[in-house]
Amino acid sequence: MIRVIAFDADDTLWHTERLYLGTKTRFMQLLQAYQSPDWIDARLLETELRNLQHFGYGIKSFTLSMIETAVELTEGRIRGSEVHEIIALAREMLQTPVELLEDVEPTIRQLADDHRLMIITKGDLFEQETKIAASRLGDHFDLVEVVSEKTPQTYRAIAARLDVDPTGFLMVGNSLKSDVLPVVECGAHAIHVPYETTWAAEHVPNDVANQYHFHRAHSIREVPEIVAKLNGRR
Questions:
Q1: How many CB atoms within 10 Å of residue 79?
Q2: Of 2, 95, 214, 217, which has the fewest CB atoms closer than 10 Å, so is most exposed?
Q3: Over 80: is that where the pLDDT of 215 sits?
Q4: Do 112 and 161 fall into the same domain?
C-alpha cells in the first residue's frame, strides 16, 4: 500500500520554467549589443551549471549566474545600470504570482482524503516556502522538504525519517533526473508527469530512462487512478 505520496513543486504543482524562460529572453535582449542571443544562452547555461555547487537552485542563484555571465561576456564593461536591470528582473520573478497547473488543486484535495501527502523540492528555502504559502495548497500537505539535491540518498533518508518502507512511498514529478530515476533506484514508486519544457540541466536521454520502471501520466489528474491501481483497488 502507498502510505506517502510526495510531490515535486516547480512545474509539477505550479508553473516555474515559463518564468525562467521569459526572464532569460529579456536578459538576452538587454545584452544583445554585446553578443548574439545563442552565445548568451549557451554561456548562461554553462555558468548556471558551474554555480549549482556553490549557490544551489532558485531565482537568487539564477540571478548571480546572469550577473556573472554579463560581466564575462562584456569583459567587465557592463554598466551599473544594466546590472541594476538584471536585479530588477530577479525581483520581478520573485514577485510573480504563483500559477497552479491545470487540475492540481482538485487532485491534491482528492488524494489528501486518504493519503499522507508531502512536498519534496529543490531550491531556496525562503523562496519555496513563499510559493507554497501563495499556492494555498499548504494545508493539504503534512510535510515539506526543501533539499539541495534529489539523490537516492536523499529519498532514502526522507523515507527513514517517515518510518515508511520504500515500497510504500510514491514520488510525483516532472523531472526524470530528480523526481523519478533516483526514487526508482531506492525501490520506491514514481510517476512522471512531464511539463511543457524541460531545463537542459534536468534532461535525461531516452535510452537511459528506458532502463527504469516507472509510471507515466499525461497530466496530474491521472495520478489518483495510478495510485488506486498500486493499492490494488482497480
A1: 10
A2: 95
A3: yes
A4: yes
pLDDT in tens, 48-82: 999 999 999 999 999 999 999 999 999 999 999 99
Claim to verify: residue 110 and residue 205 sit in the same structural domain: yes
The domain of 48 spans 17-95
pLDDT digits (tens, 9 = 90+) for 198-210: 999 999 999 999 9
Copy the grid coordinates of residue 148: 539541495
What residues contact 164, with CB distance under 8 A and at least 6 apart?
A: 3, 4
Q: Is 171 helix (H, G, I), strand (E, B) or coil?
A: strand
For residue 129, CA distances in Å to 16, 125, 145, 152, 201 come to 14, 6, 10, 24, 23
CA distance 140 to 134: 13
Residues 210 and 105 in one domain: yes
Provide the whole-model pTM.
0.93
CATH number at residue 27: 1.10.150.240
CB neighbour list of residue 126: distance below 8 Å, 6 or more residues apart: none
Residue 234: pLDDT over 60: no
How far apart (Å, rounded) are the C-alpha atoms in residues 176 and 187? 15
Q: What span, in angstroms and rounded, lies between the C-alpha atoms of 31 and 61?
A: 19
